[in-house]
Amino acid sequence: MTTPFGSYELTRFPADPRDRLQAWDAADEYLLRHLDAGTGDRGPVDLADAGQITVLGDRWGALTTALAAYHPTQITDSSLTRSATEGNLDRAGIGTAKTTVTLLTTQDAPPARIDVLLVRVPKSLALLEDQLYRVAPHVHAGTVVVGAGMVKEIHTSTLRLFEKILGPTKTSLAEKKARLIFCTPGTPGATRPTTPGPWPLTYTVDAEGGSGAGLTVVNHAGIFCADRLDVGTRFFLQNIPTNTNGARVVDLGCGNGVVGTAVAVADEDAEVVFTDESYQAVASARATYEANVRPGRRTAEFHVGDGVAMLEPGSVDLVLNNPPFHSHQATSDATALRMFAQSRKVLRTGGELWVVANRHMGYHTHLRRLFGNSEVVASEPKFVVLRAVKRENRPRPM
């Protein structure tokens, strides 16, 4: 990525030489050009004297890496973004993230005072709303607020959120299918909310929710289907094994944690592990678990990170997985396939991976290649539940 601040070799995380998706896009480039030279009637930003710079929603650390000389604070919901940022900083010879930037999660308190706020518009409008509410009390009349996104990511509803929460808002002309958002919290008459936003949301699973029926579900902003049970998870809950006989069970890509919580409630001896790359998701899973299990039940594990990479090989009996098939705006099965390979590694011999997915994804072929077997447990026109068992002495695929 070539910018006014330097040229950088950037990768996503985990790095994969076969991955053709790059770690930045035209919106990142547009925003960095604007900071250096200005756009339209908006002049450049004097970053050297700007004060505290906060980068909200950086995708893979491209903005944070380019602006590292100004010691920005990055706020992200993704542990993979955090790892990518550290790797990209090191690759650029800038040094470790700890010495150049401050890395915060969406669950952390924002900086006390924000002088420049740079926002990469996320795919989730709810996550944008929640994060704007969180930073609003730390923005002042002189704060420079610039958002960036691809044209397809910026809608009227996006601009209304900036307007409602921070102040008057307008957009730039489009360049290379990217657009900037300019918000002026210091405009006379602009008001900012003094109360928290509406998140998290809570609902109760209805009687058709299988083993999740009656559970209280807590959703922080950015979690898929925050106000109801999505149809894929519903179908999964209608078919997953819950009589696990005290097994060690992983809710992989746990989201709000309703699947793992259903197991924990049905089998109080089960050792349940929740893991997701999203800080919002793991916070939701913890809240859902605590809202449903009885006091004194054995404590569950909660991990934010790259799938089950943090678990010991051969330490798990059952993995339950509803894998994503998007990476930001890009459709990809790379994350799911990585989850399947990781699951095989952490499963004990005889351990099982259960997957729910859209039928058209064809995951049964990948599971057969990895495990040597794949069984259809349940199916309907749109979704399928698959089961794969780790056998002894099966050579790993190359």
Looking at the structure, what is the overall shape?
A: globular
The strand order across the widest sheet is 5-4-3-6-7-9-8
Helix content: 25-40%
Based on helices, strands and strand pairing, what is the structural class?
alpha/beta
User: What is Rg?
Assistant: 22 Å
- Give the DSSP E fraction (strand runs of 2 or more residues): 25-35%
N-C termini distance: 32 Å
Low-pLDDT regions? none
Q: Mind summarizing the main beta sheet?
A: 7 strands, mixed
**Tally of individual helices:** 11
Number of strands: 20
Quick check: average pLDDT? 93
Question: In terms of topology, how is this protein built?
Answer:
Layout: E1 2-3, E2 6-7, H1 26-37, E3 53-56, H2 62-66, E4 73-76, H3 79-91, H4 97-100, E5 102-105, E6 114-120, H5 125-135, E7 139-150, H6 156-165, E8 169-171, E9 178-183, E10 201-204, E11 216-219, H7 231-237, E12 248-252, H8 258-266, E13 271-276, H9 279-292, E14 301-304, E15 316-321, E16 326-327, E17 330-331, H10 334-346, E18 347-358, H11 363-371, E19 375-379, E20 383-389
Parallel strand pairs: 3-4, 3-6, 4-5, 6-7, 12-13, 12-15, 13-14, 15-18
Antiparallel strand pairs: 1-2, 7-9, 8-9, 10-11, 16-17, 18-20, 19-20
Helix pairs in contact: 5-6, 8-9, 10-11
Q: Could you characterize what this model shows?
A:
There is one protein chain. This protein has 398 residues and is of the alpha/beta class. The chain has helices at 26-37, 62-66, 79-91, 97-100, 125-135, 156-165, 231-237, 258-266, 279-292, 334-346, 363-371; strands at residues 2-3, 6-7, 53-56, 73-76, 102-105, 114-120, 139-150, 169-171, 178-183, 201-204, 216-219, 248-252, 271-276, 301-304, 316-321, 326-327, 330-331, 347-358, 375-379, 383-389. The strands form five sheets. Strands 5-4-3-6-7-9-8 form a seven-stranded mixed beta sheet, with helices on both faces. The protein has a seven-stranded mixed beta sheet with strand order 14-13-12-15-18-20-19, with helices on both faces. Helix 2 (62-66) links the parallel strand 3 (53-56) and strand 4.
